[in-house]
């Protein structure tokens, strides 16, 4: 096999330990040294110092959960000139020829030395922070939606069929009806006359729909759920303000994306958080799209290799995996194909 990186290192990342193998090419032989470091910040500094002492120009590690993030950040911060590759574990396992007694870190170092790995897309710190915010916002919106569903189910269990007469049971009119039910001082007809005025449904239909049995426990649960929804709304507003601050350097790109039909400002911020505004790091549009899909899983970084000119142009000419290792693209339907149809 061709020798691409005469000196390199592979890191096997665990929760509490890091197994690091530094490999040197001596003639046709490969000499390796393996050390184990802890995962605390002080021990990460010792790891970087050892890599400096070994004159290691490039390091590769697998993307293991979230444990790779502090390791990656420490190496990039303490040694900015060193190239750090984050590789997909599936690609490491796909290369044949591994012996069972070889350490993971040594195998990663060997693959890197011979150019059998390719780097994944890892954004800078600012983009990672933006991504944390957009993903957290998505989680909070999910909490809000779950709480809304609980409220609707609780009302249905009390035979309050608000969803049958209101397109948005928790909209302005629906919320007013629920608040009136919580007070419990008005009849269904009175609530329909006052709170249900903004609904297009006839008043007598609204009165019939909300004429249920609302107990004290049901009122207590509804207050708790409505309070949670309000708390989440306040939190989402704060998150949106923070996202807007981080998006200021990319305000022009965000405005361009928001101008695309079907994409609003929230979607635009999510797209920029996942793949950034610099498309030159991706070899093709399909690669950036695949990276965005992978990022949405919140488990692994993008598995699509980035352009070598961005990562390590001074080290090698190309960073793409050799023929036979690249993932096969998903087949698309073309006009010449016979479309699939269900059996009759």
Q: How is this fold's topology laid out?
A:
Layout: E1 7-13, E2 17-26, E3 29-38, H1 41-53, E4 58-62, H2 68-78, E5 83-87, H3 89-94, H4 104-113, H5 125-157, H6 162-165, H7 172-183, H8 188-194, H9 203-210, H10 216-246, H11 251-258, H12 265-275, H13 285-295, H14 308-311
Parallel strand pairs: 1-4, 4-5
Antiparallel strand pairs: 1-2, 2-3
Helix pairs in contact: 1-2, 5-10, 5-12, 8-9, 11-12
Protein model, in words:
The protein is an alpha/beta fold and 344 residues long. The protein folds into three domains: 7-123 and 301-311, 2-Layer Sandwich (Nucleotidyltransferase, domain 5); 129-246; 251-295, no CATH class. It has 14 helices and five strands. The protein has helices at 41-53, 68-78, 89-94, 104-113, 125-157, 162-165, 172-183, 188-194, 203-210, 216-246, 251-258, 265-275, 285-295, 308-311, and strands at 7-13, 17-26, 29-38, 58-62, 83-87. It has a five-stranded mixed β-sheet. A hairpin with a 3-residue loop joins strand 1 (7-13) and strand 2 (17-26). Helix 1 (41-53) packs across helix 2 and helix 8 (188-194) crosses helix 9 (203-210).
């Amino acid at each position: 096999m061709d020798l691409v990186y005469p000196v390199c290192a592979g890191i096997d990342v665990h929760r509490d330990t890091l197994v690091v193998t530094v490999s040197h090419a001596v003639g046709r032989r490969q000499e390796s040294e393996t050390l184990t470091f802890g995962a605390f910040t002080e021990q990460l500094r010792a790891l970087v110092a050892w890599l400096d002492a070994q004159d290691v120009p490039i390091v590769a590690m697998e993307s293991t959960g979230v444990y790779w993030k502090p390791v990656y950040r420490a190496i990039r911060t303490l040694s900015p000139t060193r190239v750090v590759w984050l590789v997909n574990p599936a690609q490491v396992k796909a290369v044949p020829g591994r012996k069972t007694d070889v350490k993971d870190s040594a195998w990663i170092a060997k693959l890197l030395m011979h150019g059998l790995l390719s780097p994944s897309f890892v954004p800078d710190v600012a983009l990672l922070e933006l991504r944390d915010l957009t993903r957290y916002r998505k989680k909070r919106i999910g909490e809000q939606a779950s709480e809304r569903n609980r409220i609707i189910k609780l009302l249905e269990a009390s035979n309050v069929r608000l969803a049958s007469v209101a397109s948005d049971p928790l909209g302005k009119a629906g919320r007013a009806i629920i608040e009136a039910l919580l007070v419990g001082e008005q009849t269904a007809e009175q609530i329909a006359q006052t709170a249900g005025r903004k609904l297009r449904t006839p008043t007598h239909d609204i009165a019939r729909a909300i004429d249920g049995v609302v107990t004290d426990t049901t009122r207590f649960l509804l207050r708790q759920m409505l309070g949670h929804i309000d708390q989440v709304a306040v939190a989402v507003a704060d998150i949106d303000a923070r996202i807007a601050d981080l998006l200021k350097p990319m305000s022009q790109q965000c405005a361009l994306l928001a101008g695309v039909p079907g994409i609003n400002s929230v979607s635009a911020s999510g797209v920029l958080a996942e793949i950034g505004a610099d498309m030159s790091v991706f070899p093709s549009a399909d690669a950036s799209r695949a990276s965005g899909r992978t990022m949405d899983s919140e488990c692994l970084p993008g598995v699509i290799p980035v352009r070598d000119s961005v990562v390590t142009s001074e080290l090698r000419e190309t960073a793409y995996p050799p023929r036979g290792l690249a993932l096969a693209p998903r087949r698309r339907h073309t006009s010449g194909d016979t479309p699939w149809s269900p059996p009759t």
